[in-house]
Amino acid sequence: MTQTLAEPTAAEKTAEERHGRPADRCAMVIFGASGDLTKRKLLPSLYNLGQKKLLPQEFALVGCSIEQMTEEEFRQKVHANLVEFGNASEGGQFCEWLLERLYYVVGDFRDPQTYQRLKPVLEGADQKHGTGGNYFYYLATAPTLFGEVIRQLGATGLADQSGGHWRRVVIEKPFGRDLDSARALNHEIGQVLGEDQVYRIDHYLGKETVQNILVFRFSNGIFEPVWNRRYIDHVQITVAETLGVEQRGGYYDRAGALRDMVPNHIFQLVTLTAMEPPISFHADAVRDEQSKILRAVQPLSPEEVLTRAVRGQYGEGAVEGQSVPAYRAEPNVAPDSTTETLVALKLSIDNWRWADVPFYIRTGKRMPARVTEVAIQFRRAPFVLFRDTPVERLAPNTLVLHIQPDEGISLRFGAKVPGIMVDIGAVNMDFHYSDYFGNEPSTGYERLLYDCMIGDATLFQRADMVEAGWSVVQPVLDVWKALPPRNFPNYRAGTWGPKEADELMAREHRQWRVLH
Ligand code: BG6
């Protein structure tokens, strides 16, 4: 008997109403189905979507990879992954349901035969599961294969939308490794797919707290009037990680912190913080405004790169009480590597709202704490009133959007310390997500997969945005390539980076926020 996902109960129906309707009928094809992303993120996300009744009944999942496996072995593997990484119970209803509509195609992604074998599997799924010819292909492959897979999909007719069905392609990061390669890839993709078929993923946009930046800014009347150069002194964005490069040395040593984090994740945070209100929440309305911000970022001259961009590489040290090796001693990293594991940058956004308001960004591996946040630092109040008091200086107000791990929002302001003297203490007004909304299991990919299935590209990168992002970092890549660093490693693992990062701020009489 064919398994169906149970009808929602009354209580669940409310949840369904709250979360939306099940996605459109479709088949999902994962290229790179035996890899890490599939087991850690994609399968658990499908499970979570299934739990919320957001997967369509008419669904099929096709794994495709070069690993020799029978379909039965693939089913067993998926089953085990769902239990290990996705909180599914062994033999539970969801597993049964998914395994019934799970297929496996083995093959090399450069070989046209692979696609010839995929085609009948998908047509069979249409027959058996009613997926209606709607397919989306998730490229969880090496980036060097993105163009190739898309070309082959085109050649086999698998990307063809004539006939009333849709075909979409989700492309993982990294999208290119500089401006030229990103342009070339966009061009290659454009030979086969319309822009509306392309879903360039940035998993930061799957994070609730990142999505909340827009809601926070535009659903609350009190913040927008002060969200500009009249009231804001500067913005600091930190994405600090305690982890090193783990098993990804091979990729990371060719990429580095700038490519890995800045034109993608950090620019999402910059654009959502800085953009003008869009005319609607439609995909292009939002992305137009994000794109405008990237185009307004002042390009750095080679001289400015030297003063506004700082790079670092960690040496050995200790993180959270554990000794850790230097970057150069990590697996698959060259022993004389000049790859940066930390970047600090000062950006200027040349538009009416942000002129003269610096955006300082920093990101690094092996820092003392895992913290991602956007801190808006407001201008100080005039000191006049306090001249005849023991108060020496007024602390600025800071609004912090805590992206992870302690998701929330806090506002710091000065309050009178109780007593007979006038003294001011900095206090925080804190909102924690978990206090209000609890913690729902999430990988951050659920919303992105769901949006792809319903055809909403708001949280995906458009071609022009990706290119605009690379344009901003390209001058830094060029100067750094021409002038290899001579002082690496220049920060100890478990510290906040080299002294140059502090000097970047100190020169402008500012300092990085002290984080824990
Ligand atoms: C990835 C980078 O895109 O994002 C990694 O390649 C980085 O180097 C990761 O560790 C950070 O993501 P998150 O969700 O842990 O902040």
How would you describe the overall organization of this protein?
The protein is an alpha/beta fold and 516 residues long. It folds into 2 domains: 10-172, 3-Layer(aba) Sandwich (Rossmann fold); 205-380 and 463-506, Dihydrodipicolinate Reductase, domain 2 (2-Layer Sandwich), CATH 3.30.360.10. Helix content is 37%, strand content 19%. The protein has 15 helices and 18 strands. The strands form 4 sheets. It has an 8-stranded mixed sheet with strand order 8-12-13-7-14-15-16-17, with helices on both faces. A 6-stranded parallel sheet has the order 3-2-1-4-5-6. Strands 9-18 form a two-stranded parallel sheet. Helix 9 crosses helix 14. The longest helix is centred in the middle third of the chain and has 26 residues, at 249-274. The protein is globular, with a radius of gyration of 25 Å. The chain starts with 9 loop residues before the first helix and ends in a 10-residue tail after the last helix.
Task: Note the topology.
Elements lengths: L9 H10 L6 E6 L4 H16 L7 E7 L5 H16 L6 H8 L1 E5 L5 H18 L5 E5 L6 H10 L11 E5 L7 H12 L7 E3 L7 H12 L12 E9 L8 H26 L8 H14 L5 H7 E4 L1 E2 L1 E3 L2 E3 L17 E6 L11 E6 L6 E8 L19 E7 L3 E9 L7 E9 H5 L8 H9 L8 H20 L8 E2 L6 H8 L10
Parallel strand pairs: 1-2, 1-4, 2-3, 4-5, 5-6, 7-13, 9-18
Antiparallel strand pairs: 7-14, 8-12, 10-11, 12-13, 14-15, 15-16, 16-17
Helix pairs in contact: 2-3, 7-14, 8-9, 9-10, 9-14, 10-14
Bound molecules: 6-O-phosphono-beta-D-glucopyranose.
6-O-phosphono-beta-D-glucopyranose (BG6) binds next to loops.
